[in-house]
Amino acid sequence: MTYDRLVCANCAAPVSEGRCPVCRANRERLQQESPFAGLNPMALITLLAVLIAAVALLAHQTV
């Protein structure tokens, strides 16, 4: 999940703005969680489609 759409329960501001210490801590945690955390969902879907196509191509060549 990306943090750009999350709203902080502490200050009711977007977490991406980092207005309070809770926002800043959660923003840092979400950024460090995964190397793909910064990608938007469409980029992840495209990456997955390319990976599936590559696996299918390799499987077809070995048969």
Task: Describe the SSE topology.
Blueprint: H1 21-33, H2 41-62
In brief:
Keywords: Membrane, Transmembrane, Transmembrane helix. The chain is mainly α.
Tag the structure with descriptive keywords.
single chain, 63 residues, mainly alpha, 2 helices, rod-shaped
> What is the number of domains?
1
Strand content is under 5%
Question: Which structural category do the helix and sheet elements fall into?
Answer: mainly alpha
- The overall pLDDT, averaged over residues, is 83
How far the N terminus sits from the C terminus, by CA atoms, comes to 38 Å
SSE order, one letter for each helix or strand: HH
Write up what this structure looks like.
56% of the residues lie in helices and 0% in strands. The chain is built from two helices and no strands. It is mainly α and 63 residues long. The chain has one domain. The chain has helices at 21-33, 41-62.
